[in-house]
Structures are given as structure tokens and as C-alpha cells.
Amino acid sequence: MRFHRASGGVQAWFEHDTPVLTQTQLQKCAYFDGLSLTEHKQLELQSRVQKLQPVEVVRHWHCIECDHDYSGKKCCPKCGHGIYSREAQDIA
Q1: N or C of the chain: less Cβ packing under 10 Å?
Q2: Which backbone phi and psi does 50 adopt, to 5 degrees?
Q3: Is 83 strand, coil or helix?
Q4: Looking at per-residue confidence, does 33 or 85 come out higher?
Q5: pTM passes above 0.90
Q6: What is the per-residue pLDDT across 5-15, written as a single tens digit (0 to 9) for each?
């Protein structure tokens, strides 16, 4: 077994010394799961990403500075600012 010290916010852990052991010896160990720390982190990340809600892109805006409705990039074509724009609720 190899001991890895805690560092960078990651807790300490033990790891099998896989180059020294045969595959049969590893499979007999009750604590061997076959996944590296990196693979465990990838699985955890995939699980978290699957639970995320999709991002809704806002395409319709209303500028409260000049009372203008427009679509596309958040930059009012009338006044040239985007800081006064908010999502438009009902654009026909």
C-alpha cells in the first residue's frame, strides 16, 4: 500500500501498489475497487453535471432607459447600452 498525504484540500488516502501486485492479488483484496482517485473524481463530476438544470439563454430584451424592445445581444440598438436592459416578458 502507498500512503498519500493530504494536500490541496484533498484528504489523505491509501492506494494499492499496483506494479508490485498481480491482478489476481488485487482482485482478492476486499478494499480494491479498481478505480483511481482521478476516475473517482470524474465519476463524481459526471454525476453532478447530470443533475444540473439547463441554462436558458435570454434573447429578448427591454431597455428601461429608452423604453425599447429588441432581440439578440444585450445591447440596446437605440441607446447603445446593455446595463439598462432586462429580460422582456412578452415580445410579439
Answers
A1: C
A2: -65, -25
A3: coil
A4: 85
A5: no
A6: 898 888 887 77
